[in-house]
């Protein structure tokens, strides 16, 4: 999950869809795996941290919460960094940050410093690596983009299946400090993967033509959409989806954070208990593509929002049933059904959001939804830890998680039936007038910026001013002027 950074890449450079693209896919697979699996896999160290610092479960749960919140909530910051420095340097810096955070955490002497090092610094590093990796993947693939995105997303359950038992082995062999150090070395591979993602570069001869094409593209974009569509907050479907997703995020991440410790406290050997997360990961690997294909069928696709509501209901009910599991066999059954429901939600959540708000508003809606989810993720696992510290029973922890997800299902399904399916989803005349006003401002600012872009590209490639270049600039001025007059004529 995590915020989406939109980048169209060079406009006239054809996506290779092969060759070095597969190397980029492998790099994105590794980065995605660490970004989403590590916040859950680190829970195998919680027992030792509790004994070391004499703290409760709620205190250790903050580590995973901070990691996930940083991954979800730093999208705007990552976008700014990418615009300033490019994808490759940002990814390499992110891998270095993530590694440094875990190295520093291995020397910490208090839980607060672990929050800062393993939570904030490592979480920021993973976010800086993950989001630009998706951008590069979409630049390298066009025809095979759905396949590439699906394979990259598979990194999350694959790494979850591996990192949990590996972390337990490191803990048993080297202790939590040694385990953190070795994990840091593994995460440093994100820097290596970032170095593999070389940017696509246009031929030097085509630089002027590229500038012209970019300007034409940007002018058309400025007429039909804004960078941030604030009107999406007035969209009933968006409000309902955001509310449901936020409530769901309070509970859906609780079981993966606690299930290993439930097994350990039930008398199951530590190494065996660590395989519970592996089971969730393996089932998730199978469930996501299956439900992605099923809901993509023409006859099924119109009912995707209802299937999404059922997936949340299924997940919440599974949590409630998991609350009465008091044996390793019961926990295995819980993990199987949780993996299925978790895979269903993962496969459908962004497809449903796009269905609700439309493609034009999707990027703005996605960023706002993930920011709301980041706040919920920061609260959910620590709140569940407080419940365990107060009661000493995992029963109430799973009831808390299941109730939150069931409530989100109720909110989404009810809103979908009574609000989101009604007419009037399109923006009214006032909203369209506001959009036209924003377009005028955008076009006015672009007059100078776009022409300056052409001049800078000519300068950087040591091109001399020629009659051809002057003709290009004259043509651009005419096109901008013509587009500028369109809103005036509309009046």
Automatic annotation (TrEMBL):
PROSITE patterns attached to this UniProt entry: MFS
GO molecular function annotation: lactate:proton symporter activity
Record domain Major facilitator superfamily (MFS) profile: where: 21-420
InterPro entries: MFS, MFS_dom, MFS_trans_sf, Proton-linked_MCT
Catalysed reactions, as listed in the record: 3-methyl-2-oxobutanoate(out) + H(+)(out) = 3-methyl-2-oxobutanoate(in) + H(+)(in); 4-methyl-2-oxopentanoate(out) + H(+)(out) = 4-methyl-2-oxopentanoate(in) + H(+)(in)
Transmembrane segment boundaries: 20-39, 60-86, 92-125, 146-166, 178-197, 238-260, 272-291, 303-322, 328-350, 362-382, 394-413
Alphabetical list of Pfam families matching this protein: MFS_1 (PF07690)
Signal peptide: none
Subcellular location: Basolateral cell membrane
Major localization listed first in the record, in broad terms: membrane
Membrane topology: Multi-pass membrane protein
Any one GO CC term of the record: basolateral plasma membrane
Keywords: Cell membrane, Membrane, Symport, Transmembrane, Transmembrane helix, Transport
Protein family: Belongs to the major facilitator superfamily. Monocarboxylate porter (TC 2.A.1.13) family.
Protein name stated in the entry: Major facilitator superfamily (MFS) profile domain-containing protein
Organism annotation: Xenopus laevis (African clawed frog)
């Amino acid at each position: 999950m995590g915020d989406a950074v939109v980048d169209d890449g060079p406009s006239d450079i054809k996506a290779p869809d092969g060759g070095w693209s597969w190397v980029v896919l492998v790099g994105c697979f590794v980065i995605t795996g660490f970004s989403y699996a590590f916040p859950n896999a680190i829970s195998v160290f919680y027992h030792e941290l509790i004994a070391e610092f004499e703290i409760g479960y709620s205190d250790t749960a903050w580590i995973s919460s901070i990691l996930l919140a940083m991954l979800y909530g730093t999208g705007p910051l990552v976008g700014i960094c990418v615009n300033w420095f490019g994808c490759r340097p940002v990814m390499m810096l992110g891998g270095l940050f993530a590694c440094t955070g875990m190295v520093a955490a291995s020397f910490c002497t208090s839980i607060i410093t672990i929050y800062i090092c393993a939570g904030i610094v490592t979480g920021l590093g993973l976010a800086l690596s993950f989001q630009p990796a998706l951008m590069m993947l979409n630049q390298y693939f066009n025809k095979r983009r759905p396949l590439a995105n699906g394979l990259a997303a598979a990194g999350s359950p694959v790494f979850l299946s591996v990192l949990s038992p590996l972390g337990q082995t490191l803990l048993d062999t080297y202790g939590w400090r040694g385990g953190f150090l070795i994990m840091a070395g593994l995460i440093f591979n994100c820097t290596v993967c970032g170095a593999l993602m070389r940017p696509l570069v246009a031929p030097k001869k085509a630089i002027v033509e590229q500038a012209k094409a970019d300007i034409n593209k940007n002018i058309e974009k400025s007429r039909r959409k804004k960078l941030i569509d604030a009107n999406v907050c007035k969209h009933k479907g968006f409000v309902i989806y955001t509310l449901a997703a936020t409530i769901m995020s309070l509970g859906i991440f609780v079981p993966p954070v606690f299930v290993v410790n439930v097994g350990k406290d039930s008398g199951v050997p530590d190494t065996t208990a660590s395989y519970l997360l592996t089971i969730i990961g393996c089932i998730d690997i199978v469930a996501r593509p299956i439900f992605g294909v099923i809901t993509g069928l023409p006859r099924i696709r119109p009912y995707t929002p209802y299937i999404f509501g059922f997936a949340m209901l299924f997940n919440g009910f599974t949590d409630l049933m998991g609350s009465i599991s008091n044996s390793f066999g019961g926990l295995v059954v819980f993990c199987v059904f949780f993996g299925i429901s978790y895979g269903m939600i993962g496969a459908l959540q962004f497809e449903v959001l796009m269905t609700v708000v439309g493609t034009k508003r999707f990027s703005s809606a996605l960023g706002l939804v993930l920011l709301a989810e980041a706040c919920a993720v920061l609260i959910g696992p620590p709140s569940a830890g407080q419940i365990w510290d107060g009661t000493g029973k995992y029963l109430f922890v799973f009831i808390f998680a299941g109730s939150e997800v069931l409530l989100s299902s109720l909110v989404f399904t009810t809103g979908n039936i009574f609000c989101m399916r009604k007419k009037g989803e399109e923006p009214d005349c006032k909203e369209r007038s506001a959009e036209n006003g924003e377009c005028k401002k955008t076009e006015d600012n672009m007059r100078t910026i776009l022409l300056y872009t052409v001049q800078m590209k000519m300068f950087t490639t040591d091109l001399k001013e020629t009659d051809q270049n002057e003709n290009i600039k004259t043509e651009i001025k005419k096109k901008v002027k013509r587009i500028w007059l369109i809103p005036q004529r509309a009046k």
